Amino acid sequence: MHFSAYLALTDDDARRNYERYGHPDGPGATHFGIALPSWIIEKENSLWVLGLYGLVFMIALPTVVAIWWYRSSKFSNDQVLLDTTQIYYYFVHKTPMMVFKRALMVLAASLEFEKGHNPEIVERPTDNIELPQLMKQLPNLGEKNKERPLCFAYSIKARSLLHAHLSRIPLPENTLDQDRLYIVKCCPTLIQEMVTCVSQLIMLAHAGRIARLPSLETIEACMKLSPHIVQAMWESNKNPLMQLPHINEDNLSKRRPVRSIEHLLSLSGNDRHHFFKNFSEEEYNDIMVVCRKMPHISMEINYEVVDDDDSGVFTAGAIVTVTVNLRRRPLGDLYEHHPQEVYRKREEDRDEEEKVKKPVSGWKKPQPKKGGKSKSKSQPQKKRVITSRREDPHADDKKEKSHSQNAMERVEELGGEEKGGEDTDEDESPSHSDESVADEADTESHREEKTNVDDDAEWERFQKGLTKREKALEGKSKVSHSVHCPYFPEDKQEYWWTYVCDRRKHMLITAPYMITNLVEQEEVQLKFTAPPKPGIYTYQVCLRSDSYIGFDQTKDIRLDVKEAREIPTEHPQWQECSSNEEDDDDNHLGKDDGEESEYTTDDDVTDDSDGE
Fold first, then answer.
1. Where are the domains of the chain?
2. Strand 496-502 and strand 513-515: pairing?
3. Which residues of 271-287 are buried (b: 16+ CB within 10 A; e: fewer)?
4. Does domain 297-357+459-565 have CATH number 2.60.40.150?
5. In this structure, are residues 230 and 242 in contact, taking their beta carbons and an 8 Å threshold?
6. pLDDT at 519 over 60
7. pTM of the model
8. In this structure, which CATH number among 1.10.599.10, 1.10.1740.10, 3.30.160.20, 1.10.3380.10 belongs to the domain 74-229?
9. Could you say which of 73, 158, 511, 588 would form a disulfide bridge with 113 (CB–CB 3.0 to 4.6 Å)?
10. pLDDT digits (tens, 9 = 90+) for 313-344
11. Which residues touch 317 (CB under 8 Å, ≥6 apart)?
């Protein structure tokens, strides 16, 4: 200690270290500590600290986790009550053929609208006065239905508010209108859950696990609920112009009927102004702005059997992959330059699709024209075809003579070259060898080009697979385009359903896939099993909007199903291996001429010599 003080007084470096670090030798070892209150480490408070630790980590934390688990176990992945899902399953199984109003009644029975399951639901004393007055204005409400829970008070209230919403009846702002906004806001998620339940029941019925098969009309009635609730329109109101601002049934002109929003945009400017003559200039501009922002979806379909040698051949029981490519554009971009020509072309395409959909009876024979002239005209055409295909009987002899003459001429030319061409090199090859070399080069180049094309196709498939995996890892986006829906309480994004169905048998072939990220272009793959019996089958690829009315599309796909290929009992590689093994055995046994087997003995050799 004295020595350290002496150093601090005599040595400048030691004094400097003492002033900076508190010791003449410099910085010491690093020390770490935990900043805890002093009362925690005091012996008098040890029992209190232990009790607090046990209360927090042994009682409070497990209680919070148990409450969270109990509440989360009541909901599905889409935050829909599992009890509500059970209600959907029950009523869909009870009524396999469900119409629009019946689906609306089941939707209103969701337990999200009941106060015991949802604390956000408000029950007011004024409901006893306002609800009966509202129910008198609503025909076909079905309030006398005795099915549970359709007859419960919460279900009747929700049903009345949904009927008023679809009829666009004004409600008291501070009471029933607030309840309407909350119920309408919950409907898209509940409808998506209802569609999922119906599709699962249909797949279970196909597998033979349940007896009753829900019809295709049931799931499409559930899908129709979403756009009609978003746009506040009944199913019976089939005029899509009601989705536009400032338009209702009273001020809509009925002199010149307009079938769709595309038809409206296809009109000339004067015709549109004449159609909206009862509207002001601002209202007309608002209507046209919304019309131009409406979606136009171009749908391209490709169907094949993936991972097969011939993807275009559909065998019985094969997995068919339907690839749906969707491209979205605003209607204003499509009808900007030549609206009437675009609309006329689209109407012709729709007429052709409808003609294709009509069944054609294959047993009817083509009837000949009157007067019997068709036979007389068709016969000489057949004779011409036959004479054109008839071969000359001396054609082979002529061919042989021509070949022999060419050969003789070629020999004479070569002989002349040998006689008169002493200075020519002997290594020069004839012209036919040059042609063969050129042909070989062409075939090699063709093979190289083919391999390059195959490599490029494989690389493109690999890149598509990577992009699909990246999208799957990133998660499904739920942002597309905002929907014009003034009667919906919040911002609604534009979603689409796509699925494959069979209209003739009223069957759903693939489960509906919901597209939530169609901004400009999107690709969807739908897979199903080909029918077990050979034949020609026609299916429909459907596209439905959950936000707009009148923008649905349907396209036909036709499968020519062949018989399933027989599975080979032995693989060709195995047969090659077995044949190679037999050859090796024969070689080892010495069956070849001039070779002796290694398994022969000396006695055999002597016997052979004696025989000779």
1. 74-229, 238-293, 297-357+459-565
2. antiparallel
3. ebeebbeebeeebbeeb
4. yes
5. no
6. yes
7. 0.68
8. 1.10.3380.10
9. 158
10. 888 989 999 999 999 999 988 876 555 555 55
11. 529, 530, 532, 564
